[in-house]
Records
---
Amino acid sequence: MLSADLIRLLALLLGAWLLGALAGQPLAGLFVAALLCVLWQQRNLRRLLRWLRRGSDASAPPEQFGVFEGICIEIDRLRERNKKRKKKLSRYLHQFRQAARALPDATVVLDGKARVKWANLAAERILGVRWPNDLDERVTNLVRKPEFRVFLERLDGDATLDMVSPVDATIYLNIRLAAYGDDEWLLVARDVTELQIAHQSRSDFVANVSHELRTPVTVFRGYLEALEAQQDRAPPEWRPVLEQLNLHASRMQSIIEELLLLSRLEQRGTATAPETVMVPELLSDLQREATRLSGEHAHLFSLEIDPNLYLSGNPRELYSAFSNIVFNAVTYTPPRGVIRLRWYRDETGAHMEVRDEGVGIPAQHLARITERFYRVDSGRARTRGGTGLGLAIVKHVLQRHDATLHIESEEGRGSLFRCDFPPQRIVAATANAGAATG
């Protein structure tokens, strides 16, 4: 079935042809008719284009007929539908911005050059970033903290930073970055003051209790040692009791000493000036001590050590961390098992690695293994003299040296503990003994 537009066109051409035939020029008549059709189509297209360019200012489509009328009506319908959709999206966007502005956590949108693109009200309260006054300002010019600048330079979505608020020194912040969009970043700063106070109170409590228990336990152990030295004068049935008392007193003293060490490690601002730590010599000494600890179990030790690789840090703290890992390997590796120590460097930094053939750690325990007093098997740990504080000490020592602890383990197939130190902690072996690189 022919459309009305086609019928009109055919009628026009037929009429033009007839008129041209009467004048003796039928082709000229057809040419004039075709030219008129083209001009009419151009006129309609221009009117349609002007209407489309006016956009929302156009109240109604131009009056047309035929296929142009249908096109204008459909475009008008689509335009009205898009208007409603825009209004709805605009309303949702407004509600989202209002909600984001009211978030208790400071939220700042940054571009790839760390310039402020948006911020909520909490950002002004705890970070000093004001919106829209600080639009396109670099956030490091607004939050003037050296550790914050270093944190921003890395632009690492997995990293977090704990620091004091630049606006109020009584507020502690936990800051996190999240990447989204096209080279854009969302900076979120959470007020963790109450959590920090609770953590500090717990640390102070543990430190105070440990300190108060230290003296009476030392005195108690002294009397026990005196009694043990003269146990031949005591009734035979007392001897097992004295051994048990001395064993548990020693264990209690170890717990107290490790709790005090943890408390010192957790204290902010207690880090000493870094020294050049000769790690190869330290690990060699540890291997000899581990061999003595192994005793009749006769573990086999394999050492792979870079003799020219030193660290900048605290020798006593690093010794404590490394010894906990090595001695744990001795404790949980079966007799005549192999324990491998590696000290090496690559493009990511320096690494101290201990691999054993011990009982392994079930996967569900790996996330919590560095918590204080956390044990995979409490009964076995107590039997072997463990306090549950060793890996917590390791974690805190590594944090103070900008390092991380990596653990791989499979139950029944041994474990791998690796301490990863950043390149800035590496010191060349030719450096002076007191040199440090921070």
Note: The first helix runs from residue 4 to 22.
---
Amino acid sequence: MLASVVLTLVATSCKNAGNGQLVGVQDRPEYVEVIPFGMKNIPLGHTIIGGGMADAAYSQTYAAKNVTVQAFWMDETEITNNEYRQFVMWVRDSIAHVLLGEAEVEEDNQHFKKYRKGENEGEVIEPRLINWNTPIDWDSRDEEYQAVLAQLYSSPAGNERFYHYKAKDLNVKMLNFEYWWVDRRAYRDPEDPEVMGAAYKEFDNADPQTKDMGMFSNRPTAYNQGKKPFLRREVINIYPDTLCWIHDFTYSFNEPLTENYFSHPQYDYYPVVGVSWKQARAFCAWRTQIRNSYIGSHDWAFENEFRLPNEVEWEWAARGYRENSPYPWGGPYTQNSNGCFLGNFKPQRGNYAADGGVQTIVVAHYHANDWGLYDMAGNVSEWCEDAYSESAYNFAHDLNMQYTYYAKDNDAPVLKRKVVRGGSWKDISYYMQTAVRNYCYQDTGKSYIGFRCVQTYLGRNFGDSKTASSNVY
């Protein structure tokens, strides 16, 4: 028996390359960094964040701190209405596919794609695979087909419900986006996905059966048992709160924006607002999904995820090369030498129109900062990934600093606070400073808060001309 094992080892070793030397696996694919469309490269670096003694009143809220930040890609503008509308229309179409797939119709009707049925009545086997190559015939004259599609619109009378520019006619209550994500920081009870304990709960590295299991020796019990306590399921209604223009301002006539801001083509390239932190994260998950679906069909690229920036990444990107400057454009002033305002905010004593816009304005209207990013001060504030804590700068790590807490629906409101940065069209210039922190609640959409996405840079030498030139599309 021993002889056969030795022969097996010898025969196997003869197949390895490297002449008996440790050379690693030789047939690994070469990594190629694909530049995400509409994003700018933000290099790795070290900086001093916060205001420190420059603002004594808030020196504890954002104290000066040395941090190091990894390289990443960042959207050059905030996500616009038209970009977010692509998300809404994708969710609408996916629901339409599911509705059509579950309809009771003739088998030979080419418009319908049957889903696999479960054992119980009405049960659909997950995942719900959608054949996107089968187009939806929104103008079909098939009455049964139209009756199924009519569920997606609030006004079932007439074909006008299928006019794509009339997004306000959508039955927005149905626009739920379902996705799964890995929460690597928190332990979750596998029997009850809604129960979350402290991070790294129930360590069992003292268990003699698991203490020598390598990566599994320092993980929660459920993880060692092959379960998935870190996998979260999210179902989010993704339609923006178009009523935020009325809710945010008492006794103010903002009805025109309520009716038109998200649906009218005039506002296609304005920043999307009324989107909560949860909806912004869902957008990142969807953007990752459609991006990776395309990349997965090519051998020359690897998957990577989009996400919200943590607040240190945001501040590092907003500052550009101007470490000690309070604003992204440099200097202590909000006007240039010609008296023109350099961002969209609430200047002077409340003259909203002095900077060229009363509310939000089209993205990239003002000059970009040193790294090619627009509107890092003003227009709309932007969601960050971090939970908000006044003392976060004092206890968070100085390497890729991020304070994270994913609050549940029944958590106290103070635990639902998320960081927003950059100031908005309704804020005075103080909030436009790169160091100033503010917050809003994760399940709330505001008329002055938008977002942009980032993607971690996974390449070798950042700024390599060969990578940057050959993969722009």
Note: The first helix runs from residue 2 to 13.
---
Amino acid sequence: MSSEVARHTSQYRVRYSDTDKMGVVYHGNYLRLFEIGRTEFLRDRGLPYSQMEHDGYMLPVLEAKCEFLLPARYDDVLEIHTLVEPLDGMRLTIRYEITRAEATLVRGWTRHTFVRSETFRPTRPPEFFLKVVGDHQ
């Protein structure tokens, strides 16, 4: 398996609809940005999430954490840095850092498990996922 650190960076321009009455990105939207980072990470490695679903696997979120350091505002260009940690059995933790220029705005993570689409029961990560992402062990 791969010992390479699994990382990806995506760019995102803040839309007006992302902001709240205070003119900053609404805190709940950061989970959507995490999802963008996660799906673009997989797509960049040749495994669109839609292909995982087609092959009968899903990756539901079990837990999520966000630490808000600085606000993002309309028209800011953000970078979503995504890092996949080594697998812990059937659990996958993905870390995110959202930055603007050199400033870190948000840090967080999501924890997932693999399930079969037809049963929604936990399962081991599929081989095609391990080949693309690796288990870093």
Note: The longest strand covers residues 103-113.
